[in-house]
Design goal:
It is a single chain. By secondary structure, this protein is mainly alpha-helical. The protein has one domain. 68% of the residues lie in helices and 0% in strands. It has ten helices and no strands. Helix 6 runs antiparallel to helix 7. The longest helix is centred in the N-terminal third of the chain and has 50 residues. It is elongated and about 95 Å long.
């Protein structure tokens, strides 16, 4: 996610410069052939091309709106995780007491129980973050994007889960590493821990039900995140949009020939090249924005910054337990001021 006020014009040009050069080459060829070899038939009336352009614009708007909805839903889910994590922490701290306990424990032991549960929650946040960054076939994979992910530290790797060790007991760590969906089983461990505390009288029935409801909310947030991650923007819509854009951009220079060939000065025909390139760049950049917004957890420019959110949650909830050995807040990186 871009953390500045806006992308600058030159940053946008830098992001799309590869395609600008491609458009310059493609749009120059018809003009050169027309002007040098006098192939008059290359001129295509603008009206049919404009009809295609209108259809493409409507379809492009639909796709970009749908992509934006996926990003915004993902952000709302993680906003819910922020609030629920705070609630979970204060309920853990204030609901788990020795008030109704059959066997009393010291204040230090009670504090350690609170820390164990909250640290397990931090491990869940991190595990969910790592799982959301696992690659899917429909996400963007090439040498440049994969190198970008490694630079930002959001690439997919099994050894990321080793970072959970400081937050879990040896038994808990070995248990979740034997499972496929590690985040899901961390919540399962929380439920088992709450049941054990209930049987010991350290959580009375009503408080136990309230904590179980919070776990249910966390499962819901995880499931909604997994739905966005594991179900792509429907491929039929993405594919057709790409085909329509391609057809329009290939027809565009021939329609521009017809427009500029009608001018009085013959040399003005060369203006068809820059104007066609500008129109091509506008349409294609809108397509790229939509395409790179389809997958808000893939670790690229338009991601929801789940690593930053998870770290800020960790700092917040551990401070509620008066802990001081806290991680540093995540700062924007690079010239694009990106948060992940």
């Amino acid at each position: 996610m871009h953390a500045g006020k806006k992308f600058t014009f030159w940053q946008t040009i830098k992001w799309s410069k590869k395609y600008i050069f491609i458009f310059l080459i493609i749009n120059t060829i018809p003009v050169v052939i027309y002007q040098i070899y006098e192939f008059e038939w290359l001129k295509i009336p603008w009206q049919p091309i404009s009809v295609v352009g209108i259809a493409v614009a409507f379809y492009l708007g639909f796709k970009n709106n749908s992509s934006y909805e996926r990003v915004w839903e993902a952000r709302k889910i993680w906003g819910g995780i922020v609030n629920t994590s705070r609630t979970f922490t204060i309920m853990t701290r204030d609901f788990i007491t020795t008030e109704f306990a059959t066997t009393k424990v010291s204040d230090q032991e009670l504090r350690q129980i609170h820390i164990t549960i909250v640290h397990r929650h931090v491990a869940w946040l991190k595990a969910l973050t790592y799982q959301m960054r696992e690659t899917r076939p429909w996400e963007h994979h090439d040498e440049k994007n994969d190198a970008f992910r490694r630079m930002a530290g959001v690439h997919s790797a099994d050894n990321h889960f080793e970072k959970l060790k400081p937050y879990l007991s040896v038994k808990d760590y070995e248990y979740i590493m034997s499972k496929g969906n590690k985040a899901s089983h961390l919540l399962s461990l929380q439920s088992k821990a709450f049941l054990d505390l209930k049987l010991k009288g350290q959580i009375e029935d009503f408080r136990h039900m309230e904590l179980a409801n919070v776990l249910s909310d966390l499962y819901s947030f995880q499931g909604r995140s997994e739905r966005i991650k594991n179900f792509p923007f429907p491929r039929q819509y993405a594919s057709i949009n790409y085909f329509f854009i391609t057809i329009f951009l290939l027809l565009l220079p021939f329609g521009m020939l017809n427009v500029f060939a009608g001018l009085e000065e013959n040399y003005l025909i060369w203006l068809a090249i820059p104007f066609t390139t500008i129109v091509s760049w506008v349409f294609h950049t809108m397509e790229m924005v939509g395409e790179y917004s389809e997958n808000p957890f893939e670790g690229l420019y338009n991601d929801v910054p789940i690593t930053q959110i998870a770290t800020s949650i960790e700092i917040d909830i551990r401070e509620m337990l008066e802990e001081t050995d806290l991680p540093e807040p995540i700062k924007p990186i690079g010239d694009f001021e990106l948060l992940f």
